[in-house]
Amino acid sequence: MLYLDFLRHGETNLSHTLRGRTDDALTAKGWAQMRSTITQSEQTGQAWDVIYSSPLQRCRLFSEQWAEQKQLPLYIEPNLQEMDFGEWEAQSTERLYQLYPDELAQFWQTPLSFTPPQAESLLTFKSRVLESVETLTQQMYAQGWTRALIISHGGVIKLLKCQALKQHDNDLLKMSAELGQLNCFVFDQGQLQFIQSEDV
Predict the structure, then answer these.
(1) Distance in angstroms (rounded) separating the CA atoms of residues 179 and 153
(2) Which residues pair with 191 in a beta bridge?
(3) Model-level pTM?
(4) Annotated binding residue 58
(5) How does pLDDT run across 77-126, given as a tens digit for each residue?
(6) Theoretical Cys-Cys bridge with 195: which of 23, 42, 70, 184, CB 3.0 to 4.6 Å?
(7) What span, in angstroms and rounded, lies between the C-alpha atoms of 30 and 92?
């Protein structure tokens, strides 16, 4: 049995937009949110064997700092990146609603059947995220690690919640994954189970 603790990055310069693959930086508040969550978790006796991270700086820079501080192995996993929103990248939902109200409604309600222009489809996103989970769990088994801290994005965490809770893929955007929040999963016999969310 493996424990996968997914930490969503904190607030960024482009929070409240669909930043996707846009490589924006954490704000001071964003750094503080992540530190607070991790520190609180450690105070309950939490300890990790390894850290995995999205390559985007809002995840990677914190991961590098924490791995160095705790002397833990760190692996940058490209498939843990956020969904690519194509032409909607770095646009606020308010602006998108003004420009494309029907399309935005389709995306929120049935993301399986609507993909923003030039964006990554939900099926492609799902495939690479699940491939990433398979890769890292295999490595954990091989190394004898039982608990990983995985620093990633809202879309990734929401997708994995859908999988673990046996929800339809179209429910992806209805899942919660707050900034700086830790979402804990168990991986057992090839099955992902959701345990809990721990807030800042």
Answers:
(1) 9
(2) 188
(3) 0.96
(4) yes
(5) 999 999 999 999 999 999 999 999 999 999 999 999 999 999 999 999 99
(6) 184
(7) 19
